[in-house]
Specification:
The chain is an alpha+beta fold and 334 residues long. Helices cover 37% and strands 28% of the residues.
């Protein structure tokens, strides 16, 4: 029996897919709580807009860090609000397939399951994010051909070679979209002696982020605080700045891709050479990333359609098609 909904419990974005309706929720994984009154103020976009501007007594929290739950109670409260918003009130708690990073520990798996049950779900099954991303990208994971998936999210980059219903070789590193945003903040501080917030850095990264030389040099102005005088200062960043800023995290991701390839059996490397590397996840959409990975690995690289939605689509397809089985799901914790 179908478990009705699929969830991508992302570090930066929380997504819900409901059978027969499609994606019903796609919002930032953020919650604002009133510490004085001990209540939830808001979640999602409304909470994200409060970040850095919260009034006295209100704390804006990202309860999921680097792909795992860092604040259990806040995660439960956020999930409950999101599920009610996306699915409405239901007499019978819906079941769910939840995508998680490929190397979460048993303790982290238990935390996800317990949070899901506490938020009003039943029978939560966990599926590896790269396997879900592969299914969402249109890959037949049950085939006897190998495909390499690189899923770059907010908190983790999950890399896997999938074949015959599961991940043959996989890796998960805590270098992804958030690390890129942090790198932009460091670059502005070191080069321009200015402090900028995460939202400013994120906006600039999305607007002009680049890891490959481009013909049209984009620019974006960020507002921050001067380290020298402490007064507000506006700094113009170019795509060259972004290439310089993102060098460290992108190099780490490229090195891990090469490491996975080195550990992949020769027969599957031949398949990957034919099928190419598939990029998914919101963090993969930095300009030139496909060219850089192709240059480093010598393999063809392509983007999946709707890369930021592949994981939740894949989790939904795996369930409704009856593919959530012992072969490709993460174990259901009893």
């Amino acid at each position: 029996m179908s478990r009705k909904i699929a969830i991508d419990l992302g570090t930066s974005t929380f997504q819900i897919f409901v059978e027969g309706k499609g994606i019903v929720l796609n919002e930032p994984s953020v919650i604002a709580v009133d510490k004085v009154l001990n209540r939830v103020v808001c979640v999602g976009r409304e909470a994200a807009e409060l970040s850095g501007r919260e009034p006295y007594g209100v704390e804006v929290v990202r309860p999921i860090r680097e792909g795992v739950i860092s604040r259990f109670n806040h995660t439960v409260a956020m999930m409950r609000r999101f599920i009610q918003r996306g699915c409405g009130k239901q007499l019978i708690p819906p079941g769910a397939v939840i995508a998680v990073p490929s190397i979460v520990t048993d303790v982290e798996e238990h935390a996800v399951r317990d949070a899901a049950i506490s938020a009003g779900l039943k029978e939560p099954y966990l599926i590896d994010e790269p396997v879900a991303a592969a299914i969402g990208a249109g890959v037949d994971v049950t085939a006897d051909k190998g495909y390499m998936i690189v899923d770059i999210g907010g908190g983790t980059t999950d890399i896997a070679v999938v074949c015959l219903g599961g991940a043959v070789v996989s890796s998960s590193i805590k270098t992804a979209g958030d690390a890129m945003t942090d790198a932009v903040c460091r670059h502005v501080r070191n080069k321009y002696s200015a402090l900028i917030g995460q939202p400013e850095a994120e906006s600039a990264k999305i607007a002009i982020g680049s890891v490959w030389r481009r013909d049209d040099v984009g620019s974006s102005t960020v507002t921050g605080k001067s380290l020298k005088s402490g007064v507000p200062v506006m700094t113009e960043l170019t795509s060259y700045d972004m290439t310089e800023a993102l060098e460290e995290p992108i190099t780490r991701i490229a090195e891990e891709i090469c490491s996975v390839i080195e550990r992949t059996p020769p027969e599957l490397v031949t398949d990957i050479a034919d099928n190419g590397v598939i990029l998914t996840g919101g963090g993969s959409q930095i300009y030139g990333l496909d060219k850089l990975i192709a240059s480093v690995t010598g393999l063809p690289v392509r983007y999946a359609e709707n890369p930021e939605l592949c994981v939740v689509y894949g989790a939904a397809k795996a369930d409704t098609a009856g593919l959530v089985s012992d072969r490709i799901r993460r174990r259901s914790i009893k």
